[in-house]
């Protein structure tokens, strides 16, 4: 739990810092996540942060809402929820009985993938530690078929076997690590 919590915190902070750097004139930029421009991507991040906060505490599945520009506040509330030990125990009824540690991996995947999407759209750096990249790659390798079935992951993008772990993770979830606007 502690190692995963550290990875979540670092990734949440990095993604939040990137969101805070977005200027109004960048909201319409395209992202590697084809269905989202920058504004829609941040809106998704807002919803996901609230969703993972809710399900960590046996809350309901939340419907998406309109963009509010408050991702940094929402991700802080999400992190506060995951810092409670009980958030790591049991399953989530709202998420079909998924084990809560699996939900934490899903939150990490969402933050890292969409943080990278945002960084590419904005032309800003986004680094992920090797331990986090290895965890993401392992999770994506196990979850890719289900993720694709449920529309969470795109079709795999072939990436060299000797590419960095984060690039291989991106390929598994349907991102081209070489994507440029």
TrEMBL record:
Lineage: Bacteria, Bacillati, Actinomycetota, Actinomycetes, Streptosporangiales
Organism per entry: Nonomuraea jiangxiensis
Superkingdom of origin organism: Bacteria
Pfam families tied to this protein: MDMPI_N
Gene Ontology molecular function: any one: metal ion binding
InterPro entries for this protein: CHP03086 (IPR017520), DinB/YfiT-like (IPR034660), Maleyloyr_isom (IPR017517), MDMPI_metal-binding (IPR024344)
Protein's name in the database: TIGR03086 family protein
All copies of domain Mycothiol-dependent maleylpyruvate isomerase metal-binding, residue ranges: 8-118
Cleavable signal peptide: none
């Amino acid at each position: 739990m502690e190692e995963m919590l550290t990875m979540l915190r670092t990734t949440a902070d990095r993604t939040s810092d990137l969101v805070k750097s977005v200027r109004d004139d960048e909201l319409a930029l395209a992202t590697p996540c084809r269905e989202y421009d920058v504004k829609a991507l941040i809106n998704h991040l807002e919803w996901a942060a609230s969703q993972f906060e809710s399900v960590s505490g046996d809350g309901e599945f939340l419907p998406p809402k309109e963009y509010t520009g408050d991702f940094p506040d929402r991700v802080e509330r999400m992190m506060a929820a995951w810092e409670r030990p009980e958030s790591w125990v049991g399953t989530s009824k709202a998420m079909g009985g998924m084990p809560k540690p699996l939900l934490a991996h899903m939150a990490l995947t969402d933050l890292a993938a969409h943080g990278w999407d945002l960084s590419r759209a904005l032309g800003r750096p986004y680094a992920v530690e090797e331990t986090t990249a290895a965890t993401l790659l392992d999770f994506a390798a196990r979850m890719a078929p289900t993720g694709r079935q449920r529309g969470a992951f795109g079709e795999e993008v072939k990436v060299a076997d000797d590419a960095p772990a984060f690039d291989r993770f991106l390929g598994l979830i349907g991102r081209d690590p070489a994507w440029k606007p």
